[in-house]
Amino acid sequence: MEEPQAWVPTDPRARASHDQVVAGLKGTDEGGAELVQLLSPEGERGGDPRFDAYAADVGVEELKGLYRDMVLVRRADREGNALQRQGQLGIWVPLLGQEAAQIGSGRAMRPQDMAFPSYREHGVAWCRGVDPTELLGIFRGTDHGGWDSVERRFHPYTIVIGNQCLNAAGYAMGQRFESKVGDPESGEATICYFGDGATSQGDVHEGFVWAAAYDAPLVFFCQNNQWAISVPLERQTRVPLYQRARGYGFPGVRVDGNDVLACLAVTRWALEECRTGNGPVLIEAFTYRMDSHTTSDDASRYRLADEVELWKLKDPIERVRVHLVRSLGVEPGFFSRVDAEADELAVRLREFCRSMPTPGPERMFSEVYAQASPQVDAQRDEYLAYHASFSDGEQR
Ligand SMILES: Cc1ncc(C[n+]2csc(CCOP(=O)(O)OP(=O)(O)O)c2C)c(N)n1
Ligand SMILES: [Mg+2]
């Protein structure tokens, strides 16, 4: 009698290969000897001779502020996920696990600095004063992000992988050409966010080359969350990503991306370098995406649960909470108040999302250009006439 055959998926992407599993595990190492860390996963404060000065002013109140930022941003993120599951959003891109990288670097910016995000930077948006409700339209498919990118100094989200590195390089070159670089107080700098997978894109390479050739005041902030959807870090590079900067002629630093204090200090240093004319700089924030790539992805198909469990022990929020309680004697009342604030934010987000108006068919034409365009106006009129031609008047 024949042995029953094991079920083999016809689509090879349906199951992680042996190589992928091994590569995924290798991607979870500790970050190496050069990792900059000021707060250990156990909540113990360490030191770093190069970067200590950049966190010296962070006392208990400032640390409480960073903790609050991370808790609120995580809550907004979890609500985004839930709203997608409830059918209120088309998709959500979770930041779970990357709160420290985003809040630390986001709070390092000065008002005059400019930021170019990818699509996962909800924490950086928060630091730039973009309310989480303003992100919802992107994921509900009703707008491309409602904020004024010039006023907030925060560019629209970029979905095309790595493309924002070119936009940021051009912007930072402009800052240099317009002599906005040099003064340690009023000088300007730009920060550009991208992922580990993006480093394999030509746009990122070109951004590195142009920024270096023109001494642009640009901090390249790579959140290495170990995965580019189902592709592990080992498929992107043979050397740690921060070491790539050397080949372009500028410094690269690897920071513990789950350590908000270290991310704040290293990014302050990098922005100062850029502001005073010593840019560009590459920061690799060594972190982990604890959720799936998006709500359309199922990470359990390509990575082991053990890996996620390992990274939960390095949770960026928990280590700050432990430090605040054990070393700085912060009372439980503070944590309850932050939790209550997170609950209020969640209610506000849900109510806002459910009451968002559905735009009419003219909406997709109304903000293509800043000024009226006869071509777009003609396309709009034709489209509206087509809609009006349905006898039941329904928009299709
Ligand atoms: C130019 C381009 N190619 C492919 C995609 C599809 N895509 C979306 S996200 C992604 C992976 C990006 O990984 P990474 O840069 O590590 O960022 P992460 O999502 O992990 O933050 C890919 C390939 C895209 N959006 N743009
Ligand atoms: Mg990634």
Automatic annotation (TrEMBL):
InterPro entries: Alpha-ketoacid_DH_E1_comp, DH_E1, THDP-binding. Keywords: Oxidoreductase, Pyruvate, Thiamine pyrophosphate. GO terms for molecular function: branched-chain 2-oxo acid dehydrogenase activity; magnesium ion binding. Its cofactor is thiamine diphosphate. It catalyses: N(6)-[(R)-lipoyl]-L-lysyl-[protein] + 3-methyl-2-oxobutanoate + H(+) = N(6)-[(R)-S(8)-2-methylpropanoyldihydrolipoyl]-L-lysyl-[protein] + CO2. The keyword Oxidoreductase applies. Residues 68-327 form the Dehydrogenase E1 component domain. One of its GO terms (biological process) is branched-chain amino acid catabolic process. Its EC number is 1.2.4.4. PANTHER family: 2-OXOISOVALERATE DEHYDROGENASE SUBUNIT ALPHA, MITOCHONDRIAL. Belongs to the BCKDHA family. The branched-chain alpha-keto dehydrogenase complex catalyzes the overall conversion of alpha-keto acids to acyl-CoA and CO(2). It contains multiple copies of three enzymatic components: branched-chain alpha-keto acid decarboxylase (E1), lipoamide acyltransferase (E2) and lipoamide dehydrogenase (E3). This is 2-oxoisovalerate dehydrogenase subunit alpha.
